[in-house]
Design a protein that fits this description.
Layout: H1 6-27, H2 33-40, H3 52-61, H4 70-77, E1 90-93, E2 97-100, E3 105-107, H5 109-119, H6 123-134
Antiparallel strand pairs: 1-2, 2-3
Helix pairs in contact: 1-2, 1-3, 1-6, 5-6
């Protein structure tokens, strides 16, 4: 895969997740990421973790990200998106986990979406979370030129 700019990574992320939210609302059934990749003609197996942000981090820094704990942590810390969604009480957040100032450890937005899509099969919750994921703010400290 050719190197993606940060802007293109974020554009594709928003396109994918807004489509998932739209299609879930339209069909009344939770739509998965594989369907979105197929819809746009993207090969999800060529995109790290089927995530445009992970792909950007990997292609930018060329780490060996086998998600052995170290690679996973480095990838998430360099994600261009703010998975806390701007909530002040969240100290650390990535797509799978959050840690709040009161010591609570919980599921990140992507993991919440997985749960409501595949386990609860709740299209209303799935669409709502997908829309939040689509519109996450960009981190201010992640720079493409580093």
């Amino acid at each position: 895969m050719a190197f993606l700019t940060k802007e293109e990574c974020v554009r594709r992320h928003r396109l994918l997740w807004n489509w998932i939210a739209d299609e879930t609302e339209k069909t009344g059934e939770p739509i998965n990421k594989s369907d979105a990749f197929k819809h746009f003609g993207w090969d999800e197996y060529e995109v790290r973790s089927s995530c445009w942000c992970c792909e950007w981090v990997y292609s930018k820094w060329k780490w060996n990200l086998d998600f052995d704990g170290v690679g996973y942590k480095l990838t998430c810390s360099c994600c261009p998106l703010d998975w806390s969604n701007g909530e002040k009480k969240i100290l650390e957040a990535d797509c799978r986990n959050i840690r709040t100032s009161d010591g609570h450890i919980g599921l990140g937005l992507f993991q919440q979406w997985v749960n409501v899509t595949f386990y609860e099969k709740d299209p209303i919750k799935a669409s709502k979370i997908a829309r939040i994921i689509a519109n996450l703010p960009e981190k201010k400290e992640v720079k493409e030129d580093d």
